[in-house]
Amino acid sequence: MNVPFLDLGRLNAPYKAEFLGVASKLFDDGTFIGGGLVSQFEREFAEYCGTEHCVGVGNGLDAITLALKALGIAPGDEVIVPAQTFVATWLAVTHVGAVNVPVDVEPRTANLDPDLIEAAITPRTKAIIVVHLYGATADMARINEIAKRHGLYVIEDAAQAHGDIRFDRKVGTFGDIATFSFYPSKNLGAVGDAGCVVTNSSALAQRVRELGNYGSSVKYRHDSIGFNSRLDPIQAGFLSLKIKDLDRIIEKRRAIAARYDKAIGNADESAPVFRLLDFGLQSVWHNYVIVCRDRDTVQRQLTEAGVGVGIHYPTIPTEQTCYADMQHYSRATPVAHRLSQSVLSLPMGEYLSDAEVNHVCDALRKLA
Ligand SMILES: *Cc1c(COP(=O)(O)O)cnc(C)c1O
Q: pTM score > 0.90 for this model?
């Protein structure tokens, strides 16, 4: 049996017929930018997150960039970012002209390590971007406390964590503003590029909406140097179908993760592989990540057993060519570097059959 790492065709197949109906109505209606489909999904997603506002944008990278702009982050400002994340988090900071200041991550969550944040704060620090990596909410109680004490904005990059709950609160409600991606592989994925911000501040929501619409809120009046980054109605229409299932999707992913947990057992650093996330911590399992003593061997064994795997992410931002000027930082974030050399992601998706999950579990039990 072969279990591919991800099969987006199968993932979205249940929505095809209904979606074609929505697309057909869009043609009859003729509103191809903005309109009712977009405002409906914005209302639904704000309600799902428990925030006052949701503003649809073109993708997750734009969501972070526009959030930073709306907060007034500008050249000369420093923004604290996790040393390991998808590079988009960092690119947004660079695009507004600010400086990424990497802080190392916790070894058992791969999320921003609250113990290390204060040492990175300078008089130029304006904000912290927290990434809820792989679907597990970061330690927002401590991070928010630090941010408050130092007068810093908090931006949640929640691209991987739609719907996760920690400290009895949903992702997207912890910071000043939160950003989401609906890239097809995310837990709430569209059928193309899409993203949004959520916030309880009407001023911030209004600024993001204006910035994503050529800096304009009244036609042909341009108050700021804007972008064109809006949520497509076709994507909004698809997301409105899927969001009804999001809680069920999360439950299914948690059930699969629980079976992987059993196959791996209470393994620790001495075993061939162990679960990245501390037991007891929840996640919406955008990725189920294991840490390998010898990743090349584990990757070969799983691949030979027909189990597709991914690596999120093999290179930390400071070791990327585009951030060559920041290479000196990479030695300062040893946990992020070590994880980039040892993590492996297992197949994860609500469409996986019992037989497929069993197949992955069998392959995990055979690792030596
Ligand atoms: C996917 C992702 C993004 C970027 O989203 P896009 O919609 O692909 O631009 C940003 N941050 C994180 C953590 C992501 O996983």
A: yes
